[in-house]
Design a protein that fits this description.
Strand order of the largest sheet: 1-2-3-5-4
Helix content: 25-40%
Largest sheet: 5 strands, antiparallel
Structural class: alpha+beta
Length: about 140
């Protein structure tokens, strides 16, 4: 669907575009101003994202988030992105920019009771991530 929007074959309400990205209004609005930002190039998820496109997406994301804040004057903005099941509904990398207001009752991303791992557990988690980075970020089978 998003490739069709990028190609101009599917109608969308475009808020921003440049040579690498496109931002358009989400059809399933949580609040007015809920915007999606996609790379023009088909990239399924963040694991396929190259540095150049990633930099362009971050620049567009920052610019659109500021514009949404100025246009709708929310108390804050949530930005999120999902990869794979169970939450990625469209297999084209995209970021949501969602204006938020206090007590709007939407989208709590963290459970009310979060765990408090020990320093040793946190150090072990960080070591696993460092090892994966040193291995080139390749997915293990």
């Amino acid at each position: 669907m998003f490739c069709g929007i990028v190609a101009g074959q599917v109608q969308a309400s475009v808020a921003y575009e440049d040579e690498a990205t496109l931002a358009f209004m989400d059809l399933g609005q949580f609040h007015p101003g809920h915007t999606l930002i996609v790379p023009r190039q088909h990239i399924a998820d963040i694991f396929e994202l190259d540095k150049t496109t990633g930099a362009a997406l971050m620049a567009a994301l920052s610019r659109v988030a500021r514009a949404v804040r100025n246009a709708f004057t929310p108390h804050g903005i949530n930005i999120w992105q999902s990869n794979g099941p169970p939450w990625q509904e469209v297999l084209h990398l995209h970021f949501h920019v969602l204006p938020r207001w206090r007590d709007d009752g939407l989208l709590r991303f963290s459970p009310p009771q979060r765990s408090r791992p020990s320093r040793a557990e946190l150090d072990e988690q960080a070591a696993r991530i460092r090892a994966a980075l040193e291995a080139g970020g390749q997915r293990r089978s």
